[in-house]
Amino acid sequence: MSLSTFLMLLVALVLVQASCSQQEDEPCDDAGSREQDVPFLEVYRSSFCQPFLMTVDVYSEYPDEVSYIYKPACVAVQRCGGCCGDKGQFCAPVEMEMVTIELVKISPSIKESTMVKRDFLAHKQCECRPVSIS
């Protein structure tokens, strides 16, 4: 962590603690925040570029199978997201794996349903990379 980032965090924590001490009717916890508030460091850490559980549309992953109905139509897989702290960078996967998910595939034309397994790409590790200008 750079010195400037550390100083910004320190100033933010002091401001949070000061605002809590001014609120006499709402006691602060040890982290310096009111009970219903999410602590700054938790928000800050969870906003970094990292894998998050995201909903992926089955048809966007399998566009050739739009004549079928899948249940569920969306599945949850780990995908990269979050902030990089620089507008010249984006959050990208560096390690991925295939995850097999069981779905119900319905064929409306013959009114039949079967259990099928479909592979989805899951992101295991992410990093900030420069945005390429084209």
TrEMBL record:
GO terms for cellular component: extracellular space; membrane. Residues 1-18 form the signal peptide. Residues 36-133 form the Platelet-derived growth factor (PDGF) family profile domain. GO terms for molecular function: chemoattractant activity; growth factor activity; vascular endothelial growth factor receptor binding. This is Snake venom vascular endothelial growth factor toxin-like. The gene is LOC106482869. Belongs to the PDGF/VEGF growth factor family. Keywords: Disulfide bond, Growth factor, Signal. It holds the Pfam family PDGF. GO terms for biological process: induction of positive chemotaxis; positive regulation of angiogenesis; positive regulation of endothelial cell proliferation; positive regulation of mast cell chemotaxis; response to hypoxia; sprouting angiogenesis; vascular endothelial growth factor receptor signaling pathway; vascular endothelial growth factor signaling pathway.
